[in-house]
Amino acid sequence: MLMPLLRKMNFFIIFMLIIAMILGVSEAIWHKVVAPLSKCEKNRVIIRNELGPGRSLEYHCHSNGKDQGVQFLKFNEERNFEFVDHFFGKKNKVNCVLRQGLWMQSSSRDFEAYHTSKSNGNNCGQTREWIARTDGTYFQRNRIKPAAFVFPWINKKP
């Protein structure tokens, strides 16, 4: 009679140890992986007009199928949009096209202004800056190095 009771207690003790180990591991995962992601700084895409006094920049961006509409920037103005990358789920992707000049006939190609990193699926506090100048479009990442020339304007006939 005592033997079956001891066997049941052994199974119960082993079961409780397994539950304790699972809870301990999941708490460690929560504190080291999930909790820091919830405090992730927003990412930013910045569009800036450095074309010169009196010159407007037209830009049209869309993100994950959401059209931001055609907008304009005066000289030395900038606009930014912010978003958070999610560790799980849909990845962020922002595409834009810039136009300038008389009747906005000079344009950039449709370019990818931002995409979620493929390596870890999570970027926190990233900045992607696209700058329009008279000779073309420049790019700067996280404001670490000076902006670098990316591509020239494409002239279209009116």
Automatic annotation (TrEMBL):
GO biological process: rejection of self pollen
Subcellular location field: Secreted
Pfam family, one: Self-incomp_S1
Keyword Mitochondrion among UniProt keywords: no
Keyword terms: Secreted, Self-incompatibility, Signal
Similarity remark: Belongs to the plant self-incompatibility (S1) protein family.
Protein name per Swiss-Prot or TrEMBL: S-protein homolog
Protein species of origin: Brassica oleracea var. oleracea
Lineage of the species this protein comes from: Eukaryota, Viridiplantae, Streptophyta, Embryophyta, Tracheophyta
